[in-house]
Amino acid sequence: MLKKEDVFVGSRFGRLVIMEEIGTAKHGGKVWKCQCDCGNIKETTTDLLKRQKVVSCGCRRKYLRENGTTHGLSARTGMTKEETRFYRIWKSMTKRCRGNGTVEDKYYVDKGIIVSEEWKIFLNFYNDMHGSYSQHVKEHGVVNTSIDRINVDGNYCKENCRWATMKIQANNRSNNILIEHNGETKTLSEWAEQYNREYSIAQSQYKKSHNFEKSFIDEVSTSKRCKCLTTGEIFESLKQASENKIIDIASLSNACNKKQKYAGVGEDGKRLQWTYVNKNGEDIIEEPEHELEISEKSCQCIENGKIYKSISMASKDLNIGFHSISNCLNGWCKRCKSKTDGNFYTFKFVE
Length: 351
Known about the structure:
The protein is built from 13 helices and 17 strands. By secondary structure, the chain is α+β, with helices and mostly antiparallel strands.
C-alpha cells in the first residue's frame, strides 16, 4: 500500500490526476479534487487513493461492464495461457513488493525493493514488456520465461528488468556463491557447468576447502564400487548408483562414508543404506583425511574422568556419535548426549 507522502498535487492514481486539496474528511484525512482522463472531475480522500480504491471518476467501471475486463488478459476472455500468465507475473511482482508477512518479505520488502510508479499500472507494464515477453516465450517456452532484475538489489522498473530462463535467473540471485579464478568471476553453478562437474559435489568440496582446483579440477572419487545394503545390489561406481536410484551423488558419498545413515528411497518405500565395497564385495569404510587426523588424538571425558586414546574409543564406550564428540572438542558445541543413558558429557583433548 502507498503512503500518505505519495499523495500530493500532480500525482497520478490510475486515470485520476490530483489538481488541488479542497478540505478535510470526517475522519481527518484530506479531500482532493482530481481530474479524470475522460475529462470529468472527481473528489476523493487520501485513504481511498493510497489504497487504490478509487482510480477513476466511474468511467472505468462503465468500461468494465461493457468489455468484461480492464486489459483483455483474463482467462474468461478466451486469451491464451501465455497471455494470462503475463498478467499473473505482474500481479505476483506487485504483491511481493507490498509484503505478505511471509519469509519472502526479507528478499523484497525488508531490502526496500519496490515496483516503479509507472509499473503499478498494469497497462504501462504491458506496453513496456509484453513485446519482449512474447519473443522470449517463442524462443524458450512459457514455463522457462520469468521476469528477472538485472541488478538484484535494484527495483522493478523498465531499465532494470528483462525476461530470463530459469537457469539465468538462478545465476542472478543475491545468495549465490561468487568465485573468482584467473581474473574471472562466476557463480559456483557456472564454474561447475564449465568444468563438467556435478554441482552438489563441487559445492560440498568448495565449502570444505575454498580451493578452486580441489572443487572443480581435481578428480573426484565417483568411480568407486558401492553396495546398497538395503537391496544387496552392487554398482561399479557412485555415478552408476546415482543414476540407477536417482540419488544425489554427494548424498550417496556421505552415506558410503557413514556421514549419514540413508541416501534415497527404494521402490518399496524403504530408505536405502550404502557402503563402499572392494572387488570381492567386502565392505570398505573410508573416513575423510581431516577426520582421521582428529580421531587419532587422545581425549578425556570430564564427567567420568576417563582418558581415551582416540575419539572412536570414546564414541563406542559412551555410545555418542563421533561427530558430536569432535564438535565438542573443537568448541562447536558445549556437550554431547549419550544414546545409552541419556546423560550429557563434555570432552577435552589431552596429550
